[in-house]
Amino acid sequence: MICSMTGFTVQQCEAGRASLHLELRSVNSRFLDLVLRIGDELRQFEPLVREALSARLTRGKVECRLNLQVDGGGEAQLSPNPALLEQLRQAQAAVRAQLPEAAPLSVAEVLRWPGMLAEQRVDPDTLRPQVARLLEAAIDDFVASRRREGEKLAAMIRERVAAMRALVARAAPRIPEVIADYQERLTNRLREAVATLDEERIRQEVAVFAQRVDVDEELNRLVAHLDEVERILAAGGQAGKRLDFLMQELNREANTLASKSVAGDVSAIAMEMKVLIEQMREQVQNIE
């Protein structure tokens, strides 16, 4: 399936007295650019997160936020760690014995001491299974969202491809008529300009110029490129870069068609093609 590089998901799970919160969002990028914003208490899981994302994603600027939210409700959550409190009391007594003028620790400083509110702390090692499961669920949902967006992009591109095929079908029957009409007009001008010019030379000049304005080859290449676009969309997978190259090729053929055209309606068809190609190119930039 075709995947977009744009996606978003939020997942959450309970982990004892805390909850894990994971958010993934992505935008376009030429390569895979991972931006990890992980809480300090979960920093040890950064390699796990990076490896999991790299295994499932290939392009896009992906921002990952992983946080641990500890339940702050209940009286038990505010109980200080008795052992650490006693250690602080002894340490403060020893310091003030040597430095009597030293200010005592405030209640706020004691409560902010690392590990003082012991029951609020969650052992990161016990969170690894939950983090792994949450990460897997989040990436599954994230990839699914990118696939849904990719399906919409593919449908839009197919619509533009069908429109371009219709334009080619309009232009193809006109080319022999346009060439014949231009040959006749050019011949008449040459005869008027040079009454004594050899008829064979006139036919040669007209034939050479007719080859220059013949766009059958460009129309055939346009059809071939459109076939390839549809083949890539049907194959799915990592198609963004290949489709981007084909957009360049389609644009080159449309430009050549416009430059060779000697009829107003064919020039208008070429301009309509360029509009459709630009619309497709903008959307192709979103495809992984």
Describe, in plain words, how this protein is organized in 3D.
The chain is α+β, with helices and mostly antiparallel strands and 288 residues long. The chain folds into three domains: 7-73 and 127-146, Ribosomal Protein S5, domain 2 (2-Layer Sandwich); 80-116, no CATH class; 149-284, no CATH class. Helices cover 62% and strands 13% of the residues. The chain has nine helices and four strands. It has helices at residues 46-56, 82-98, 107-111, 124-171, 174-193, 199-213, 216-235, 240-260, 264-284; strands at 7-15, 18-27, 32-38, 60-70. The protein has a four-stranded mixed beta sheet, with helices on one face. Helix 1 (46-56) runs parallel beside helix 4 (124-171), helix 7 (216-235) runs antiparallel to helix 8 and helix 8 (240-260) packs antiparallel against helix 9 (264-284). The longest helix is centred in the middle third of the chain and has 48 residues, at 124-171. The protein is rod-shaped and about 125 Å long. The termini are close together. 22% of the residues are buried.
